[in-house]
Amino acid sequence: MRTYKIAAIFGDGIGHEIVPAGMEVLNGVAAKHNFQIEWESYHWGAGYYEQHGVFLPEDGLEILRRFDAIYFGAVGLPSVDDTLPFKLFTNFVRTHFEQYVNYRPVKLFDGLQSPLRNKNQTDIDFVIIRENNEGEFVQTGRQLYPGFTEGLAIDTSIFTRKGIERVAHYAFKLAQKRRKNLVNVTKSNTLINTLAFWDKIIGEVAAHYPDVKYTKMYVDAVSANFVLHPEYFDVVLTTNMIGDILSDLGGAIMGSLGLGGSGNINPEKTFPSMFEPIHGSAPDIAGQNRANPIGQLWSGALMLEHLGEENAANDIMKAINMVTSGPLRTADLGGNSSTRAVAQAVLEAL
Ligand code: ATP
């Protein structure tokens, strides 16, 4: 029987509720499609940091390397400095495992209304490809004399030819499999060094894919167009920070941040890829069985797709759509269904 070894990292907050819910659904779909998942669970994150002074143990990466993929919830607690989860966990894993593609689909589920009142499922269906290893988030800057009148601070962005080319090729290949339309989201009219370089290299890569319609658009215009004309978009290729911001906007136009799934992908499969919802650990609703599990379930479907179990992945998506077509709604979507009830309904739909 096909067997996949998956590390489940619960993280913090609602991670403890939505990751187990996702594991149950994944076990259900695996049984239906004749494969099995061997899980190992890890309670790493900000809670672990409070006890041990680290987000994951010293040999954490070595442990994770042995798995086929990582199924992750979210990290962060109000009691822990909010600059640490990204630096010491999420970005740490993403960069060490060369997960240079952050794959973030935006799609309207059956039965759900977008806050964009005239837009339907054909209008809202695109994928954000966020560069995930460099750009604005490399954290190489520093503060000098912050408490003095002479105080100053610098953050530098790093963009490399290799880093841009590899994510661009991934995005154009994806566009070839979709509606053959790629928008490069940039701000090279003001960031005249880094993003002009980004545009130049993406333009060069675009020349290898003449069947894909290639457009460059500034991020300010894209923000407006996500709201006014989401139907313009098919594959949206952008930088680390711009992608971070735009994907929350993408989550919002789907109806809730709780719906968005994502993959941190190492396309070469040299390292395991990591799948997580786009939202954070939502400490405000943690422990109440109220979190929407759909973003976590969608992340599970993306993981199966990455592992080559496309039929099983499609089944999860169909089951989610069957549930969203019905009456069950968690609080973020205006209802009062529980996390468990929604996940159970997806399992039954399967
Ligand atoms: P991060 O910076 O790690 O993305 P954050 O602090 O910006 O996290 P979230 O933890 O994503 O934010 O929470 C933002 C808001 O969205 C909160 O009010 C939270 O309750 C809500 N939210 C996030 N995820 C879900 C979910 N799965 N179901 C319901 N509500 C959610």
What would you say this structure looks like, in words?
- The protein has about 350 residues and is α/β, with parallel strands linked by helices.
- The protein has 2 domains: about 1-105 and about 260-350, Isopropylmalate Dehydrogenase (3-Layer(aba) Sandwich), CATH 3.40.718; about 115-255, Isopropylmalate Dehydrogenase.
- The protein contains 11 helices and 12 strands.
- The protein has helices spanning about 15-30, 45-50, 60-65, 85-95, 160-175, 195-205, 220-230, 240-255, 295-305, 310-325, 340-350, and strands at about 1-10, 35-40, 70-75, 100-105, 125-130, 140-145, 150-155, 180-185, 215-220, 235-240, 260-265, 275.
- It has a 10-stranded mixed β-sheet, sandwiched between helices.
- α6 (about 195-205) links the parallel β8 and β9 (about 215-220).
- The longest helix is centred in the first third of the chain and has 18 residues, at about 15-30.
- The chain starts with a strand and ends with a helix.
- Adenosine-5'-triphosphate binds near residues 76, 280, 282, 291 and 330.
- Adenosine-5'-triphosphate (ATP) binds near residues 279, 281, 284 and 330.
